[in-house]
Amino acid sequence: MRLADDYQPYSNIKVADLALEHLYRADSLLSSARNWGLADIFGGGIFITMAKRKKMEDAQNEMNEARIYINQLLRNLNVSGREQYDDFEFNDISSFLDFAGAAISDLFVQNKIEKARNQVLETITKVEAIRRRLQELSED
Question: DSSP of 68-89, one letter per residue?
Fold first, then answer.
């Protein structure tokens, strides 16, 4: 990663912290959705499905907020070879299938939750690395 000459380490550390706050909350919500999803697979009902969907929706909102800060951070740092952070979206087909109640649809949705959580964990690792590097540069 190549940093622009005029980066501002302290303000960029704050932006990284804000992104991480949202990512940590998304991870927690996805972990909860995963647990609700397991209950749904093993005989859940409409209330369990609704609780799981609420956690997924809240996680999506957190990922959207994190995306704003991550893209701002990458712009601020003028990272060459910059990757755009794309949030994972739960689509309408998974919502429809989830409420259909079939075990196969529960497994499909569970897989979507796991993929989203893995993406969030990978993104946390990357943002934490950027934050550590900014912290090192600010101490020099």
Answer: HHHHHHHHHHT-TTPPPP----
